[in-house]
Design goal:
By secondary structure, this protein is of the alpha/beta class. Helix content is 42%, strand content 22%. It has one domain: Vaccinia Virus protein VP39 (Rossmann fold), CATH 3.40.50.150. It has 11 helices and 8 strands. Strands 1, 2, 3, 4, 5, 6, 7 and 8 form an 8-stranded mixed beta sheet that branches. The chain starts with 6 loop residues before the first helix and ends in a 12-residue tail after the last strand.
Length: 297
């Protein structure tokens, strides 16, 4: 039971878990900073279609309901992608520093934010892990640090670096358990002969360490679903990359299995995929740590 309250043990366990995932990705030839390169265009379309905008609005509304304000404030958006949150933050009056490492997404981010006046959005095309917060002048520099579903969250050290940039609030979202991706559920039995099982994700490490280290925060876990349409070629690449990340051989044999399945099941060439799962959201309060209600306004 004493280990349950051992900060160092939890930090080390999370580091070990994160390192094992990163090692598996490196072994598979997958670079997190470039993982979205090949699907940047489709990701951008999904982010700004009606369903994507509604999803973004729900999250921003939740933040505002907790007292986060955007007008005339500074926001650091880590893992900004093509601007799914950067754009509405700036539209609400914030000055946004958007960090993104995927060059195709950086290009789309530039296009999506070109309408804003000078200094409204500053794009930093660098992996956050490579940024020296102190020399950059980012220590406690932002009213809100926002990190949504970004692979930079894989150990407590990175969380501390993220929090160090914030003055008032820090928002982090990540999967609460393994994502239910309809196409992967279809393919896994064909490749392995077994059913794909859900796994708990790193959200538990984050919440427990925030608790142990004395932070004040609100947390929320919800079930979210989105629908995507991929070309058969993009779906094939997505599946093979995923199989590599799962330690499965992405050889000619499995490539043929997957390609044949896609040809049979999606003869139109369009693959409709549903992605769902439980996702966690945490808002860390750094300045006013008391309970917030709308009546406080």
């Amino acid at each position: 039971m004493n280990d349950f309250f051992n900060e160092e043990l939890w930090e080390q366990e999370w580091k070990n878990h994160g390192d094992s995932i990163m090692n598996k990705m490196n072994k598979a030839g997958i670079t997190p900073a470039k993982a979205f390169d090949y699907k940047a265009k489709s990701f951008n379309e999904q982010s700004f279609n009606e369903e994507g905008r509604k999803r973004t609005t729900r999250i921003i509304n939740w933040l505002e309901g907790q007292g986060v304000q955007f007008d005339n404030t500074s926001v650091l958006d880590i893992g900004a992608a093509s601007g799914v949150f950067t754009v509405p933050f700036a539209e609400r009056g914030a000055r946004v520093t958007a960090v993104e490492s995927s060059l195709p997404l950086v290009e789309l981010l530039g296009e999506n934010t070109a309408k804003f006046t000078e200094n409204k959005v500053d794009i930093v095309p660098t992996p956050f892990e490579d940024i020296d917060v102190q020399s950059k002048g980012w220590s406690h520099a932002f009213d809100l640090v926002f990190v949504s579903m970004c692979p930079v969250i894989y150990n407590w050290g990175n969380v501390e670096k993220i929090i160090r940039c914030a003055r008032n609030f820090c928002y982090i979202s990540m999967p609460a358990d393994s994502t239910e991706y309809s196409l992967f559920n279809e393919i896994w039995p064909i490749v392995t002969g077994s059913t794909l099982k859900k796994k708990p994700m790193e959200m538990g490490y984050l919440l427990h360490l925030l608790y142990l280290k004395g932070y004040s925060y609100e947390s929320l876990i919800t079930r979210e679903t989105k629908t995507m349409e991929l070309s058969r070629e993009a779906a094939l690449q997505e599946i093979m990359n995923w199989l590599r990340s799962q330690g499965q051989p992405a050889d000619d044999r499995n490539l043929k299995k997957v390609a044949d399945y896609l040809d049979r099941t999606y003869p139109s060439g369009k693959v409709v995929v549903q992605q769902s799962g439980r996702f966690g959201k945490v808002l860390i309060r750094l300045k006013d740590q008391s309970m917030y209600t709308r009546e406080d306004l």
